[in-house]
């Protein structure tokens, strides 16, 4: 087995998106414009309603997938295909925008903490114009694996100890784990050798192989077929991996295609109401 190591650390950058939702962005920044096949990672979160209450009103997407994973709070999503649902802590929505979808994600709370992650996952050229698809899983549909005392792993996608996450049929063959380590515990996970992988720590401090990773830091991992992590004082992180495509990326706001002509077409289709 080849252990993955930390090859780059990105400190998440405070910004806002939607109608003024405060968040910390790590992928999709000047430091790391993309991490093939991942295009963006936002960790939204605040206890102050002013930082999230305006939510993410209607906006379009084409050419990739948006993944929302809730840590705390409630968020209602609606989209132009007629899908609607309420995201609760531990629940996940994996939306394949494909040829085009318009959606909104709005907090369904007026006080208390709301936090979670939004990840953008690219689609290969051959699937960018696919029919939009939508997968949503309630918290109890996301299996919890406890490989050792004090180690809890929620398997959103991929496999841990023979337990598979519910997300299926995704081009990048993703792994998406929510890992909680109690003080003094460790965890190792197999990952496909050729997949791009990162860990994002959002509570406590993790040690990946020999490197410490602090809260609000994204650790880009080297190639390898397993990752070993531990924590002296306890931590929580997401561990994500996926197959890179190595294709050109043309990007304009909520549209991610392969060429600027395709971006022009996306804008035109959206302006002419040719999205669903
Ligand atoms: Fe969106």
Please name the CATH architecture. Sandwich
Bound molecules: fe (ii) ion
Class computed from helices, strands and strand pairing: mainly beta
- CATH C-level category: Mainly Beta
- The helix/strand order is EEEEEEEEEEEEEEEEEEEEEEEEEEH
Q: How do the strands line up in the largest sheet? A: 1-22-19-24-17-14-13
Q: Return Rg in Å.
A: 18 Å
Strand % is over 45%
CATH topology: Jelly Rolls
- The separation of the N and C termini measures 46 Å
Overall average residue pLDDT: 96
Shape type: globular
Q: Key terms for this structure?
A:
single chain; 276 residues; mainly beta; Jelly Rolls; seven-stranded antiparallel β-sheet; binds fe (ii) ion
In short:
The protein has 276 residues and is mostly beta strands.
């Amino acid at each position: 087995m080849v252990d993955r190591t930390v090859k780059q650390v990105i400190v998440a950058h405070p910004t806002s998106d939607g109608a003024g939702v405060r968040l910390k962005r790590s992928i999709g920044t000047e430091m790391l414009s993309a991490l093939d096949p991942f295009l963006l990672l936002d960790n939204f979160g605040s206890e102050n309603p002013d930082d999230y209450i305006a939510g993410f009103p209607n906006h379009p997407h084409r050419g990739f997938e948006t993944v929302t994973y809730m840590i705390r709070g409630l968020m209602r999503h609606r989209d132009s295909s007629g899908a609607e649902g309420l995201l609760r802590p531990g629940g996940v929505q994996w939306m394949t925008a494909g040829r085009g979808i318009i959606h909104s994600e709005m907090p369904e709370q007026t006080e208390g903490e709301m936090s979670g992650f939004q990840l953008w996952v690219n689609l290969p050229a051959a699937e960018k114009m696919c029919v939009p698809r939508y997968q949503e899983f309630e918290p109890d549909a996301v299996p919890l694996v406890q490989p050792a005392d004090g180690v809890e792993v929620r398997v959103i996608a991929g496999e841990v100890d023979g337990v598979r996450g519910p997300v299926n049929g995704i081009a990048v063959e993703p792994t998406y784990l929510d890992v909680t380590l109690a003080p003094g515990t460790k965890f190792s996970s197999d990952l496909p050798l050729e997949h791009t992988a990162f860990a994002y720590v959002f509570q406590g401090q993790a040690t990946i192989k020999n490197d410490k990773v602090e809260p609000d830091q994204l650790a880009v991992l080297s190639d390898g077929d397993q990752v070993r992590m531990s924590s002296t004082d306890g931590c929580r992180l997401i561990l994500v991996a996926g197959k890179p495509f190595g294709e050109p990326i043309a990007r304009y706001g909520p549209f991610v295609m392969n060429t600027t002509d395709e971006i022009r077409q996306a804008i035109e289709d959206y302006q002419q109401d040719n999205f669903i």
